[in-house]
Known about the structure:
Keywords: Methyltransferase, S-adenosyl-L-methionine, Transferase. The protein is of the alpha/beta class and about 300 residues long. It has one domain: Vaccinia Virus protein VP39 (Rossmann fold, 3-Layer(aba) Sandwich). About 40% of the residues lie in helices and about 15% in strands. The chain has 13 helices and seven strands. It is globular, with a radius of gyration of 18 Å.
Amino acid sequence: xxxxxxxxxxxxxxxxxxxxxxxxxxxxxxxxxxxxxxxxxxxxxxxxxxxxxxxxxxxxxxxxxxxxxxxxxxxxxxxxxxxxxxxxxxxxxxxxxxxxxxxxxxxxxxxxxxxxxxxxxxxxxxxxxxxxxxxxxxxxxxxxxxxxxxxxxxxxxxxxxxxxxxxxxxxxxxxxxxxxxxxxxxxxxxxxxxxxxxxxxxxxxxxxxxxxxxxxxxxxxxxxxxxxxxxxxxxxxxxxxxxxxxxxxxxxxxxxxxxxxxxxxxxxxxxxxxxxxxxxxxxxxxxxxxxxxxxxxxxxxxx
Length: 303
Ligand code: SAM
């Protein structure tokens, strides 16, 4: 069944549950002896959502080691993603950028856990229920943002640029954008292009963007079968989520090409680059051809 353009969710269902899943993997990665990331807020956030499967992932009891889930070595994979974008923000800070926008922030806690240069403002956009749940839960455990933080609760298919400006965003300043885990099939191809074009229109010279793109289920004719495999695997592990209903099938926007064609200087990466950069083991040969390799990563600068 196709997704309607105005659907909503919280962190326990639909697209929102995927935010809880990746936060659970970050929680597990944080517990590891030689951790490659530190996200101390992931576990309390996941536990506050309260889904048994994700609690088990967060505690390290279940490592997602089921190839049918489509993500090889889930804890390592999402730790490598998180580390890649943490490093991006170090470069952003070194470049003197003091305005940051994290779109589809989900349970991202970078506004609370990274050390931001003085004068940085971080804006986060996600659906209202998602962003309110995060800020309320973190406030209950006494966590405070480490910089000026402004949350913008709005759907990315609505006039989010207007809401961002109303929150104080200044399009004359260079911005560092992050779109982690959203341009991977959770928006229709048209909504992806609109999102990117809005980002481009709001970006002063010197702005940067980091993002992942593609789709775990790929764009081939068998993508619904692949989605069904993920749905079945989640059900086997005790969580009912129809993955095929979340993902827009078909071709998704090549973010790197879209930006390059509009004058941005772009670098592409693959999952194995991120694992290597994090000092994590390489993918097994079977996984090198697997569904997660449909996802690409990009950093870009508007010179
Ligand atoms: N960036 C976060 C991270 O990596 O931990 C969350 C990634 S999660 C896989 C996908 C996120 O995209 C969810 O938080 C979801 O609410 C958000 N999202 C997807 N479509 C959206 C839309 N139309 N409007 C606002 N947020 C959206």
